[in-house]
Amino acid sequence: MNHSILVNTNKLNLMNSTPSTLAMKVYSEIHQDIRSGALPPEQHLKTDLLKDKYQTGTSPLREALARLASESFVTATGKSGYKVSPISTYDYEQLIGLRRYLEIKALRSSITRGDIDWEAGILAAYHRMSKLTKLESEGELLYNEKKEELHRNYHFALLASCESWWELKIINNLTNHIERYRRVLGITLNASSSEYHKVQNEHHLLMTAVISKNFKEASSILDEHRKRTYKLIREKLETT
Asked: Could you read off the pLDDT of 205-219 as tens digits, one per residue?
């Protein structure tokens, strides 16, 4: 197995795995609530309320908020105070510009270096994403989180053989921020809509082009795939 695939996959799995400490657990829960919009932009994060909501103490909460601040999900407002970071068209343009550059660069590297294990990882991630169904006992929130996770895992499987772990780490953070914009603004695709099926077809075409190591076609499909969402978010921002 290509060493970089193993390293990148292990590090991404570790980054997205179940937290092993209380501070990481709190960080993960707040991070998810910010990305989903449950904690909306510019909401003040009052310590007492957060301690009750996330069933934690002051030290783990402080550590979690410090990490979220380092990733620009929360902003310091004064002595020990934080609020959820605001959203803006300017900030959004910065995010998508940088992700577009890095993602295409990482895709080229991954296609060049990818081996049979990399291909198997892509196929498995695509299969899990495309076969996801909502269980009768499953709430909408849990189902949406699973859908987001599988979609993310698919796109990162395409990049798993990238030479640079640091590129993937930065792309991961940018993706988290862009996900927040999309979900805060209420941009989702209904599974029964024609647009949803169009997106799923793009996922299949992208997978085929990547496994065929056709970078030109794969990068073109990925660019168009991303542009659709970027446009919807930009239009929503301009009218909000």
From this structure: 999 999 999 999 999
Domain boundaries 3-12+88-239, corresponding CATH code: 1.20.120.530
Residues of the chain with CATH 1.10.10.10: 18-84
Residue 91 C-alpha from the chain's centroid: 17
Residues 203 and 158 sit within 8 Å (Cβ to Cβ) = no
Closest residue by Cα to residue 64 from 117, 21, 2: 21
Residue located via tokens 């900030």 = 91
Give the residue carrying structure tokens 């270096």. Answer: 113
DSSP letter, residue 42: T
How many Cβ atoms from other residues are within 10 Å of residue 153's Cβ? 19
**HSE value, Cβ hemisphere, 13 Å, CA-based, for 219:** 16
CA angle at residue 178 from 172 to 184, to 5 degrees?
A: 135
Predicted confidence (pLDDT) per residue in 113-133, tens digit: 999 999 999 999 999 999 988
Quote the pTM value.
0.86
